[in-house]
Structures are given as C-alpha cells and as structure tokens.
What we know:
Layout: E1 3-7, H1 12-23, E2 27-32, E3 51-55, H2 61-70, E4 73-76, H3 83-88, H4 90-111, E5 115-120, H5 147-168, E6 172-177, E7 180-181, H6 192-202, E8 206-209, E9 215-216, E10 219-220, H7 221-232, E11 240-244, E12 250-251, H8 252-263, E13 269-272, H9 274-277, H10 293-299, H11 307-322
Parallel strand pairs: 1-2, 1-4, 2-3, 4-5, 5-6, 6-11, 7-10, 8-13
Antiparallel strand pairs: 9-12
Helix pairs in contact: 1-7, 2-4, 4-5, 6-8, 6-11, 8-11
Bound molecules: uridine-5'-diphosphate.
Residues 83, 122, 179, 190-192, 195, 207-209, 214, 216, 252, 284 line the site of uridine-5'-diphosphate.
Amino acid sequence: xxxxxxxxxxxxxxxxxxxxxxxxGAAVQIxxxxxxxxxxxxxxxxxxxxxxxxxxxxMNRRLMMELVDRAxxxxxxxxxxxxxxxxxxxxxxxxxxxxxxxxxxxxCAKKRKPVLLAxxxxxxxxLDKPTFSEQDDLLLGPTSKARWCYAASKIIDEFLAQxxxxxxxxxxxxxxxxxxxxxxxxxxxxxxxxxxxxQALLGEPLTVYGDGSQRRSFTWVGDVVEALLALMQQxxxxxxxxxxxxxxxxxxxxxxxxxxxxxxxxxxxxxxPYSEAYEVGFEDIGRRLPDLSKLQRLIGYKPxxxxxxxxxxIIAYERRRLGR
Length: 324
Ligand code: UDP
C-alpha cells in the first residue's frame, strides 16, 4: 500500500487529494497547521482506517522526519495562499513558503522520497502573452509591492526543487497551479469564485475589483488532483515544471454575471477600486492563460468541465452550506 504524505492536507486542494488517494487504496497522512486550512475539510475522512492527520506546522522538524520516513511519496501543498493574506502578511508568506519547502526537500532528499511541490501561475507575474508556457520568462513587479513576494518565494521554491533534482538526484516535480476552484474553497483569503457565489446566494452585492476586465481561467479541483496523481506516477515528470490549468478564459465581470445568472440572484454588481480591495498601488494581473501542451503530452491531460458546470457545482455546494 502506497503511503502518501500531504502537507497542507486540510486545505482546499489537499483535502480533495487526500480523498481521492484514499479511494484508490493508498494510506494518507496529512499535516496542517490550520492557518488557512480547516479541520472540517477532512472531517469525513477521519474515520477512515488508512487516514491519519497531525495538526502542527511543517516547520516541526522532528515530526516531519517521522512523517517523511513513513511516506512513499510527498505532496507539498502547505503554503501561504490568497492574494489578500499575502498583501496583509508578507513576512508570514515569505517565511512559510521558503522555510517549509527547504525543510521538506532536505528531509525527502535524506530518505530519497519523491516530492511534488505546488507552485503557482502567480510566478509568471505581469508577463503579457496569449498563453504562458513553462519556459517563458517571469516578470515580477518591484519589491515595494507586497503582492510579488508570493511569486518570488515560490520561484525560490521552484529553484530549490530543481536544484535538489540536479544536485542530489531527488525526484521532484513542480506544478504551477492556475486559478483552481471547487467545493471547500473559502473566499476568506480573497479568492474570487467562492466570494461571488456566496454574495449572490446571500443577495449581497457582487464585488468586482477594478473594472472587471482582468481575465483568468478557472480549473476544477478534481482535474488538478488527477493531474498531480498522474504526474507522480510518471518518471519522466521528475525534474520538470508543469502548468496545470484550463484553456477557457473569462473576464471577472463576465464571471460575476455568470454567477449571478446561474444562482438566480438579483444582487447588483459593484466595482471596487483595487486601492480599496487590497492596498494603494496594488497591481493586478491583466490576463493569465496556461499553455497546457507539456501536461497534455505527458499525461494526456484534458479538463473535464467548462466554467458554467463548475460554477453550478460550487453554487450547489454553497447552497447546502448556507442552507438556502
Ligand atoms: N477579485 C474580484 N472580486 C473579489 C475577489 C477577487 O474581482 O471579491 C478579482 C481579483 O482582483 C483578480 C481575480 O478576481 O483579478 C482573481 O482573484 P483571486 O484572488 O481569486 O486569484 P488571483 O488570480 O488574483 O490569484
């Protein structure tokens, strides 16, 4: 039986990954400090005989030594996430993202355990291209703007993962996750989809930041999980970086209209200046669309849903939670 360790396993993506691994017969250990994750995300897994969870920080070296020792493979998802959190707490962002990854890689290298590191499409920064490929240059803003510390910390993580592969022969995989959505994602740290859905269901104004012309592509969390699992099984994935995302692009204003329509809501859509939503001088990313050809070639990746189906499922989930 494969034993998988998931750091950040009580988070949005980690909890879905844990669930699928258990369904497929693996033993799963998760570690999470519940900083942005929630124990309710894994409540339904607690009784499973092959599931163990530890509520602690990934920075706890002795504990991590034990967990890595028991694991056959490691999914390192623990990180500071969410643009709002990053802008508000840059020290925590930089320290969590870099120190934790250093430790995970060091411990995995000692025991030669394959490790998949979750990075982010944020690393492309302000790059202005129709699609972003793994080999493209990365274009960040100045260090005076806190937003970019997230990308910068994840870029260091990516360098580290690849350095461990090259220098120490550790099997590492880096995935750049584009905007991922699905049940259990919380809007608390700024993520747009759960925020708009909740606002629509509660009859509150839908908050669109800026003029809403910024574009994103949204990926279903189940597809992300399938991609991570398939990559871990692929020896050719080691030492490589992969985009994981969706080919369909939408403006945030269009997204708000779609959410409102599908929720049957009569909420108004309001435009909030970035300076109010985040901080003065905040720089948003105009558009962001992945080139998925590398992932398609290696694992035959194909997203399973279009955006309206994903939004419908999130609406159904939030309705159950809100009792509406
Ligand atoms: N956004 C918005 N309203 C919200 C939350 C976010 O218009 O209530 C915008 C945000 O400014 C960005 C996009 O939605 O342009 C996606 O934001 P999110 O934080 O989900 O992910 P990002 O792409 O910024 O990492």
